[in-house]
Design brief:
Largest sheet of chain B: 5 strands, mixed
Structural class of chain C: alpha+beta
Number of helices of chain B: 18
Shape of chain B: globular
Strand order of the largest sheet of chain B: 2-1-3-10-4
Order of helices and strands of chain B: HEHEHEHEEHHEHHHHEHEEEHHHHHHH
Oligomer: heterotrimer
Chains: A mainly alpha (331), B alpha/beta (429), C alpha+beta (350)
Helix content of chain C: 55-70%
């Protein structure tokens, strides 16, 4: 094993020595960054540029050279509405339904997930036996693939599944969970929180554990009630972590696809069709592949994410200032 | 690098390039390799493999590789592959008109064109999309017909007589509702979540599908059947989760519900026969009944998967030889008999195929065969129309939205028309 | 000893908040693990038992009895419980069924045949683990091949990821060069890009380079992970520069410094990235879905998805396959949980 490693090492050493002599110490760094950059360039940046090309062309061909240029026609199609206040009158009503679904989902899911992650982190932060075991319990679903998670819950939520069996046994009504518009939305939120909560809990827990004991001791000496401690001390000190977690969760929530695709397929109707699913449907699933429209929609999505990221940068800078001030005040 | 090292490096390079050129040489002497992308409902690819081995024994210079893939791959990935210049030599496809621009004309390589024209004439046109096109692009590995399966045991248990061959959809709805109530099953019937399946009853109810200029149109007949279907879903006649349980135009079949005795009647097609037999077995008695009638016709939809020759193939002559072998009457008859499907070979339709099958399967095949003459010419025309997906896919999406109450039937129809028009417009670009 | 078990809020008794705490934890345990447990239990049921409603906890199948009918044909026949004329349930074996009437015989007195309506009988069940679901997977489908593909992709991609990302992180943390900020910004920006917008063009490029239907087509695009570069960079920033300066003064090449000094010192961060990479590549779905179309090239996730496809929902195989797909991840979790947790924690905190 180490023989292979040293062979590998010896293979590149002369190459780098040569490079060092040529480029000098500071520019040798480019050689190190090169492999990563090449892959980025080839598989991320180049596709983005080509995607712009797709967004400005029409037709059903996949080869860019065979697509007729139409300028902003695809975008016009997306944004064309008879009455701009009533989204149901839009030309691409499914696109706007997807955006509205995604917005509702993102807000609800992130708020609920933050609540439960924070609660769980606070609980785990207490003096309990076997903390790493309990931490693992909540983290386990994060490791499962989205397909597995979705199939797991689909199996339970079926008309003849475990949940309905339990409800009937308890004398309650059974329901077709996944074919009811309202309930399928609920379950999508539930399943995604179930699958991802542990990840954020861990980050928040680490943040909580980084708060020094002295702070709590000082608060106890000042006879502060637990709620006050939580509100005035813990939360402000946790703010940087919270912001990171919220933004990560937001970005992930906007792009949700795999679990929903397998769990409800976007249904019933368009109740759980989110934006990435719309793009997949328009560009891949339907037989008439409208790559142009899909590309245009994806650019709109990317713009939304960009806005969110910028807000995060602003907030995290403010948060850093805020927490510094906050901790100073408490002293 | 030291002298010794340099010499060693040179030696290695020399050896490496020698090996490389040897292997390239070896590759050229190899036999022509034909890749066939095949999906199966029952055992079509397995039988094809058997026949291919026989072909290989008679044609030592050709090697056939059958790639068994899920149906999804053929529907979603093959078009993308072909568009980017990749793909197999032959593929078993159901979107026959839609992929036509990638087809390879094997006509010039065939020994006996007239044999093909005579025996496959009604389906060869499905692969030809340009006016005046006389090319031969492949052959249908079977003809399929859509039609209903019925759980006879449930009818017996409920003591309700099954409607006769001239019964309408309304008659069947009434009968199956009675049966469902008496035997306490979930729903009376279900149709596969597919625009293709939907088209049969639509045509029977008077949808004209095409307008005067040959374009697709959503007319009053289509509207009528959509209204009926939505109502049946809402009042519990249809198993709601089949259409409502998915989004977009994703395909879902209701086989599981029928197999587990949760519905009385199931509109699907002749390709499910083997599955019915193997998975239901003796659990209950299932039969095929003739397509119920509407005011205009008693029609199902024809279809079938075709083995088409693809343009990117590096061995067009060999592809022609292989497909010609399969088209010969005895080989084709064997394919049909072993896969328990209906033949697209007109000679065999006349003669009849000797199925070596279980009595249930034979009975089912007989009913489907008898339904073939009842197919409306509109059905053939729609199946062969290049942009038929533009009607079928939005139908599924919009009708589902009407079923779950997202929009009224009228709105759904308006949306359906505009989706269809946009889709055809883009496809034409 | 007792103090260990009751160590709580500084008192020797359990405070009511502690009861709540443990209640919450146990509820969490139930909610997180019960679905998976149900999945495993269900995967052991036979195809018939799976569609049973209401579902049973243990896997049951109908008991079969070897019996000869009047023509002397010996074969396994299903056993039922029938309410006899004397009001007592009898065990009867079904010989054949026509419509709704079944011809049955008493297991004890097989000569007398009785015609019974199928509504009046219930099947006799026994607990039976349907291992056939699992063995059938390997026999019927090319499952081992799919497993190999997943393993190959995961291992190779992880090795390459570790190499490329650590090289880039080294450059971005231990050097100052023109354009460094831009490169860093670009790498972070890629974190924000939803993979959907690059699907079609990336697919075009992959096939253009000839990597379509190749496992390498799944590996190469995935190895330049921005998270990995970020993680390693944060860690490498904490490696003291003096070590590197000293090595340079000893006339070591940059490659040697990277390989012999920085890499070994970054071992904990590398371990975390390795675990992440294994997790990501094992669970990859959408990208392999596009790149791999030949079934012998499918990864486990793809094979799993192709089963839950439209034409066939064979739940018994599907469930077994799902269980197998989550076993490796579970093992990783069980043994390496601590590293994963500390890794994420440090990434989040920084």
């Amino acid at each position: 094993m180490s023989f292979i490693a040293s062979c590998f090492f010896n293979l590149f050493e002369p190459l780098f020595r040569l490079g060092q002599r040529w480029l000098g110490l500071s520019r040798i760094a480019w050689l190190f960054v090169a492999p990563n950059l090449i892959i980025f360039g080839l598989f991320t940046f180049l596709p983005i540029i080509i995607n712009f090309h797709y967004a400005m062309t029409a037709g059903v061909q996949i080869m860019p050279s065979q697509r007729p240029f139409v300028g902003t026609e695809n975008f016009a199609l997306l944004f064309e509405c008879r009455d701009h206040f009533d989204l149901a009158t839009c030309n691409q009503d499914l696109f706007w339904k997807a955006i509205s679904n995604t917005s509702k989902f993102t807000v609800l899911q992130v708020i609920l997930m933050m609540f439960f992650s924070l609660l769980t982190a606070l609980v785990l932060n207490r003096k309990i036996i076997g903390r790493s075991f309990w931490r693992g319990v909540f983290f386990y679903p994060v490791l499962l693939s989205p397909v597995v998670v979705a199939l797991l819950w689909k199996w339970i939520l079926q008309k003849h599944g475990l949940l309905n069996a339990g409800l009937l046994a308890a004398g309650l009504d059974s329901r077709e969970w996944l074919t009811d518009s309202g309930w399928s939305f609920f379950w999508v939120i539930f399943v995604s929180i179930w699958a991802h909560m542990g990840f954020y809990t861990l980050i928040l827990l680490a943040g909580l554990q980084a708060i020094p004991r002295e702070v709590y001791d000082a608060a106890e000496m000042d006879a502060a009630s637990p709620w006050r401690t939580l509100y005035r001390i813990t939360l402000p000190l946790l703010m940087p972590n919270l912001i990171v977690v919220v933004v990560l969760a937001l970005i992930r929530a906007i792009q949700i696809f795999d679990e929903v695709f397998v769990l409800t397929g976007g249904g019933p109707g368009s109740a759980t069709t989110f934006i990435v699913q719309y793009i997949y449907q328009v560009g891949f699933a339907e037989q008439i592949h409208l790559y142009g429209l899909a590309a245009a929609a994806s650019l709109v999505l990317a713009a939304g994410i960009l806005v969110l990221t910028l807000i995060q940068l602003k907030l995290s800078r403010a948060g850093k200032h805020g927490s510094k001030n906050g901790s100073k005040q408490e002293r | 690098m030291t002298q010794a090292n340099r010499r060693r490096a040179l030696a290695l390079t020399a050896m490496g390039s020698a090996l490389l050129s040897l292997s390239l040489l070896a590759a050229n002497i190899q036999a022509a390799e034909l890749r066939v992308m095949c999906y199966q409902d029952g055992n079509e690819c397995d039988v094809l493999t058997e026949l291919s081995k026989r072909f290989e024994s008679k044609n030592a210079d050709i090697k056939i590789i059958i790639d068994k893939v899920p149906y999804k791959t053929v529907v979603e990935q093959l078009p993308v592959q072909l568009a980017s210049g990749q793909g197999p030599d032959i593929a078993r496809v159901t979107e026959i008109g839609g992929l036509s621009k990638y087809y390879l004309d094997i006509g010039p390589y065939l020994k006996d064109r007239d044999y093909w024209e005579k025996n496959f004439s009604n389906t060869l046109s499905w692969m030809r999309t340009r006016a005046g096109d006389k090319g031969i692009y492949g052959l249908l590995s079977q003809l399929t017909v859509t039609g209903p399966y019925v759980n006879k045991t449930l009818f017996e248990q409920a003591n309700v007589p099954m409607p006769g061959p001239k019964a309408t959809w309304d008659d069947w709805v009434a009968a199956t509702r009675k049966v469902a109530k008496a035997t306490q099953v979930d729903a009376a019937m279900a149709w596969d979540r597919s625009g293709h399946r939907f088209a049969g009853p639509a045509i029977s109810y008077g949808a004209k599908i095409f307008n005067g200029s040959g374009e697709l149109v959503v007319d009053d007949g289509y509207r009528a059947i959509v209204q009926k279907f939505v109502d049946w879903n809402k009042d519990g006649t249809m198993a709601r989760e089949v259409w409502a349980g998915a989004g977009g135009s994703a395909y879902r079949d209701a086989f599981e519900d029928f197999k587990n005795g949760r519905i009385v009647m199931y509109l699907s097609g002749s390709w499910q026969i083997r599955r019915m037999n193997s998975q239901i077995g003796k659990n209950f008695d299932w039969v095929v009944v003739p397509n119920p009638c509407g005011p205009a016709a008693c029609s199902g939809m024809p279809g079938g998967a075709a083995l088409v020759a693809l343009k990117g193939s590096k061995s067009p002559k060999e592809v022609a030889r292989y497909l010609d072998f399969l088209a010969q009457e005895d080989n084709y008859a064997e394919l049909i008999a072993k896969t328990e499907n209906l033949p697209a070979h007109m000679g065999l339709v006349q003669k009849g195929v000797n199925y070596n099958s279980a009595p249930e399967i034979k009975a089912a095949l007989a009913v489907f065969s008898a339904d073939i003459p009842r197919l409306s010419p509109l059905a053939y025309r729609l199946q062969g129309y290049q942009y038929n997906r533009s009607l079928m896919f939005p139908t599924v999406t919009r009708v589902t939205q009407a079923i779950v109450g997202e929009m009224s039937v009228a709105d759904a129809m308006t949306r359906l028309s505009s989706d269809m028009a946009e889709s055809v417009r883009q496809a034409r670009k | 000893m007792r103090q260990f078990f009751t160590r709580t809020r500084g008192r020797t008794r359990l405070h009511w908040t502690d009861w709540l705490t443990y209640l919450y934890l146990f509820a969490g345990l139930l909610l997180m693990f019960a679905p998976v447990l149900w999945l495993v239990l269900s995967s052991l049921k036979s195809e018939a038992a799976i569609s049973d409603f209401p579902p049973t906890l243990l896997p049951y199948t109908q008991k079969m009895v070897m019996l000869a009918d009047e023509q002397g044909v010996q074969k396994l026949r299903p056993l039922f419980l029938v309410q006899g004329a004397d009001g007592k349930p009898h065990q009867m074996v079904e010989l054949r069924r026509i419509g709704i009437i079944a011809t049955m015989v008493d297991a004890v007195h097989p000569e007398q045949q009785v015609k019974i309506n199928i509504k009046l009988r219930t099947p006799v069940r026994e607990v039976s683990v349907a291992t056939g679901n699992y063995t059938g997977l390997f026999a019927k489908f090319n499952f081992l091949q799919n497993l190999n593909n997943s393993v190959f992709i995961t291992v190779v991609a992880t090795l390459i990821t570790l190499l490329f990302n650590s090289m880039a992180a080294f450059a971005l943390s231990k050097y100052r060069f023109r354009g460094q900020q831009t490169v860093l910004l670009l790498i972070i920006a890629t974190l924000m890009i939803p993979p959907t917008i690059i699907l079609v063009p990336a697919f075009l490029i992959v096939s253009g380079v000839g990597l379509f239907n190749s496992l390498w087509g799944v590996i190469w695009p995935a190895v330049a992970t921005p998270t990995g570069v970020f993680l390693l960079r944060q860690y490498m920033l904490t490696i003291p520069d003096e070590l590197i300066e000293a090595a340079r003064m000893d006339n070591a090449s940059e490659w040697r410094i990277y390989w012999k000094i920085v890499l070994p010192l970054s071992a904990p961060a590398l371990a975390v990235l390795a675990i992440f990479s294994v997790m990501w590549r094992w669970n990859d779905f959408l990208w392999p879905l596009l790149v791999l179309s030949k079934p012998e090239k499918f990864t486990l996730q793809l094979a799993l998805n192709s089963f839950q496809g439209e034409l066939t929902t064979e739940w018994h195989y599907l469930l077994a396959m799902t269980v197998i797909t989550l076993v490796p991840v579970t093992l990783v979790f069980a043994f390496l949980q601590k590293y994963i947790a500390t890794g994420i924690a440090s990434a989040g905190v920084k």
